[in-house]
Amino acid sequence: MRDLTKHSLFWPLVALALLLVVSVIATPSFFSIRVQDGHLYGSLIDILRNGAPTLLIALGMTLVIATRGIDLSVGAIVAIAAAVACTYMAGAPDGSSAGRAIVAMSMAVGVCVLLGLWNGFLISVLGIQPIIATLVLMTAGRGLAMLITDGQIITVNNALFKKVGAGFVLGLPVAILIALAVFAITAVLTRRTALGMLIEAVGINPEASRLAGVRARTITWTVYVFVAFCAGIAGLMIASNTSAADANNAGLFIELDAILAVVIGGTSLAGGRFSLTGTLVGAMFIQTLATTIPTMGIPAETNYLFKAVAVIVVCLLQSPKARAVLSVRRPTPLLMKGSAA
Description:
Layout: H1 2-5, H2 10-26, E1 33-36, E2 39-42, H3 43-50, H4 52-66, H5 74-91, H6 98-125, H7 130-149, E3 154-155, H8 159-166, E4 168-169, E5 172-173, H9 174-191, H10 195-204, H11 206-211, H12 216-242, E6 244-245, H13 254-264, H14 276-295, H15 303-318, H16 320-326
Antiparallel strand pairs: 1-2, 3-6, 4-5
Helix pairs in contact: 2-14, 3-14, 4-9, 4-12, 4-13, 4-14, 5-6, 5-7, 5-12, 6-7, 6-12, 8-12, 13-14
């Protein structure tokens, strides 16, 4: 049991299980899943679908944090992706066609990749601290999204675009399938190849890894491009779910949710080892908490307060020093006099 509690996933899973129990007590039909028009509906399906954008960004944030970095600009990148895609479709004469939607989404993701390249350049080439470099885009990015949309909420009517965030395939929401596909690809690349080890090496000691022949600059650049790519996909999901781009509110504070999911999942902010599975659990915990609070009659404005408390509790439970203080030490039996050495 002691070895089990020391596992990095133990307390996040316990926290998620307790939250699900509370949800069932508050809403007895919480686990109910119904089939309507061949599609699955229910609270659990809603949690998975609504948590898909957070999971996507959290996956990229996990790799960024593993390199001792941080990206505060992902919320602004979400808004930019939504603004680019919806503005392009709204301004085209055939904005409802599938081809126009593909071009719009490709443009949006391409712009996000360029923004990731910019962040990576500032951090890996110019040596600017990650929190400062990404804070620049966090501040300017949402203003850029407002300029693209001219400060208006841009609505679109495109069936293919709508499917990205609100469509279904084989009864499951498309958003869930996209998030799980990105999760699977990321897991394969980081755990079945040397990429994961290289990322951890850069996070543990960038200078030592560079002297050992690891291209630390390239690794750092790559993870910032990847998290921007994930934010772009998440932005398309959010805009698709409402068929609109709201530059002022799209992706607002989602960077905090992504960081909270990574921390709850057991990845250290000091860099080094990371856990993609832990991030998945953390993202589901964050979304379950956001879903449970309103159903219990608690104002939604207190959501971040509960998230902060949850993070503190989980981090304390994962801390070796905190566990040592809280654990009850067994009395050490005294050796009997005259016993053999």
